[in-house]
Amino acid sequence: MHLLIFVFISITLPEIKTKEIDYISIEIINEKVKEGKKETKEVKEVKEVKEVKKFKVKPSPPKQKPLAIPKKKISVVTKKVNITPKPPQKKPKIISPKEKVEKKIDNSKDKNNDNLFDDMLKNLAENQPKPIKPIKPIKNKTNTKPKKTKEEIKRTQKSISNIVYKQIKENYTLPPAPDLKVINDITVQLRIYVMPDGTITKIIVSKSSLKKAQDDSTYLPFVEAAQRAIRKLGKFTKLPQEEYNSWKIIDIRFTPYET
Amino acid sequence: MDKIKRLVLKLIILIHISFCYIFLVQPNIALSQDEPLQIDIMGGKIQAMPIAISYFSIENNLKELQLHNNIPNLIANNLVNSGLFKLLNRDAYMQDPDQLNGRPKFRDWRIIDAQALITGKITKKTNDKINVTIELWDVYGEKRMFGISLSSKIKSWRRIAHIISDKIYERLTGEEGYFDTRIVYVSESGSQKNKIKRLAIMDQDGSNHQYLTDGSSLVLTPRFSPNQQQITFFSYHGINRGLKPSVYLYNLFTGKMEILGEFPGMSFAPRFSPNGLDLIMSLSQNGSTNIHILNLKSKNIKQLTKGIAIDTSPSFSPDGENIVFNSDRSGGQHLYIMKKNGKNPKRISFGRGSYATPVWSPRGDYIAFTKFTRGRFFIGLMHPDGSAERLIAEGYLTEGPTWAPGGRVLSFFRQTPQNDGTMRTRLFVIDITGNRERELITPEDASDPSWSPKNIN
């Protein structure tokens, strides 16, 4: 049983990591785009790293196409291959140029820093080939921004929620209703889609709210008031770009008062 | 061997850690990143809805009548008086009425934060008839909410404006409008000792005022019939001819007044049943006052309550199945509900003070009443089961609530002592939140208002 689990883990774990790495690398790029002032230094650093990596990685293409390389060089390559025995590299074929660059960046850091999962990987190395190696450095690179713990994620989400909440609430006015407490449940649910720049592109009223609005004319103004608040807002500001995934779709529940 | 054992042990631990990581930690992270952000908005700003009502475009040959200004002004007046809408200053409008014949430039209206825009056009139909077309626009939603076209004689332009107001109100609030309605009331003039009380009627906004009786006899408690054609009231009319004070019917179309039969005692506090076929009232005889129901066609009368208590002020529920009334059968004056046949009377008021003049709302969800407690009069509301009692208006003498169609607005009268020792009696309108009270202007003192049903003519 354990063996099965182990095999499963050994197969799945690298995939998870690669996913994670992809996500993190995107964050870094976004940050650079966002922060104009810091950009110059960081970009320089990255460029330097890129250059180094390019230099380092250069030998790898010959691995795949040894026939095209002169004999003398082949011997050098074989030496390197012996040092780090790896299975045939599947990833490079799939990974986009951007990802390649990021992975290169991570490689450089790998050499400088210790990885949290070093031990784990070493152990894994004894039992299976090491396709994870290029990924490992990315973790190191993200040491400046280590992988978020549950609490950190919660904290970030809370801060995003607060930003979103304030901006919507500022624009939400109750509809003209002679008596708000007529209807038992006047909660309205909307889903909105947001662009990375904060622009709200789409408002969808939940099916239950739509149905209720069709059945009850006194409920319709509450749906319209909720939509109006979103349209009036139009665009969110101050939302962290690097957390775009967490706010690109927002479900909002408007409860004009507690019933 | 030890090395192998240690290695196996390490592997097992690693597997467990990995297992936990994959199945417990990783999914949570994935969820938090992929699931939509959940936001709960509790409460919101309470303010009158800012609306823009443009002057209407009009044919040149009608301009002198000023209807293109008067109709939108009257619509604005109705909506603003409801307390739910705020008219945006027309000086800030960026599009002229003539530019608003098609789709408005919503951006121009969003600049002034108009949430709804009303545009209109008046054309001549025949010599004395006009056609009024209006459209209601959702400015932020950039869509047409509804449109309506009405034709009528030029002299009925006020009625057109009231009907349009109702349609707009209904679309924006979801509630039944009450602008195309009238109010009958008792107009009071003369000195305190020699009061002249006349029946008077007017539109809900105070216009088209007229007197129905000449003031030669005292009138009290007028009530509209559901079809708007008749008014029932208590009067001393004919007292000079030896008739007892009694309940009368007044036909608004013919102007004729008739007494509702000769009853053994004194009849008072009449009110129509929801179908208009019966009249429910109190009859006082042999020291007791009980509630009776009179069939207007057959003139048959049936006693619904019995006993020595004073049972009065009956009012039907909108479905006609129940009757609310007040009675002193438990000692204090309280509100009771019984079936339309007089069975299963049940007390619904339990607060301190005296309760009187209960009126069931047209929606059936509230009963309005007058309450006297701690030396003050109040207008209050409660649900038909007696729950959620709240007081929405007060005064030295505040009495006689009456519901507007839709059951969200009431009228009542308030008597206020003046510095010269006289009393001033005025009509007021208030909504059920108790927040939006305003005086209804009448030529003289006014009491006992009764709001008509929606105009069906």
Can you describe this structure?
The complex is a heterodimer of chains A (259) and B (457). Chain A is 61% helix and 8% strand. Chain A is built from twelve helices and three strands; from the N terminus they run αααααααααββαααβ. Chain B has 457 residues and is of the alpha+beta class. Chain B has two domains: 125 residues, TolB, N-terminal domain (Rossmann fold, 3-Layer(aba) Sandwich), CATH 3.40.50; 270 residues, TolB, C-terminal domain (Neuraminidase, 6 Propeller). In chain B, 16% of the residues lie in helices and 43% in strands. In chain B, strands 2, 3, 4, 5, 6 and 7 form a six-stranded mixed beta sheet that branches. In chain B, strands 10-9-8-31 form a four-stranded antiparallel beta sheet, with no helix packed on it. In chain B, strand 11 and strand 12 form a beta hairpin. Classes of the chains: A mainly alpha (259), B alpha+beta (457). At the A-B interface, helix 1, helix 9, helix 11, helix 12 and strand 3 of A face helix 1, strand 1 and helix 4 of B. Strand 3 of chain A pairs parallel with strand 1 of chain B.
Write the layout of secondary structure elements.
The complex is a heterodimer of chains A (259) and B (457).
Chain A: H1 2-34, H2 36-57, H3 60-64, H4 71-83, H5 91-94, H6 97-112, H7 118-127, H8 136-141, H9 150-171, E1 188-194, E2 200-205, H10 207-215, H11 220-233, H12 244-247, E3 249-255
Antiparallel strand pairs in A: 1-2, 1-3
Helix pairs in contact in A: 1-2, 2-6, 9-11
Chain B: H1 2-34, E1 37-42, E2 49-53, E3 57-58, H2 67-81, E4 85-87, H3 106-111, E5 116-124, E6 129-138, E7 143-153, H4 157-173, E8 182-189, E9 196-203, E10 210-211, E11 219-224, E12 230-235, E13 246-251, E14 257-259, E15 266-272, E16 278-285, E17 288-295, E18 301-303, E19 311-316, E20 322-330, E21 332-339, E22 346-347, E23 354-360, E24 367-373, E25 376-382, E26 390-395, E27 397-403, E28 409-417, E29 423-431, E30 438-440, E31 445-451
Parallel strand pairs in B: 2-4, 2-5, 3-5
Antiparallel strand pairs in B: 5-6, 6-7, 8-9, 8-31, 9-10, 11-12, 12-13, 13-14, 15-16, 16-17, 17-18, 19-20, 20-21, 21-22, 23-24, 24-25, 25-26, 27-28, 28-29, 29-30
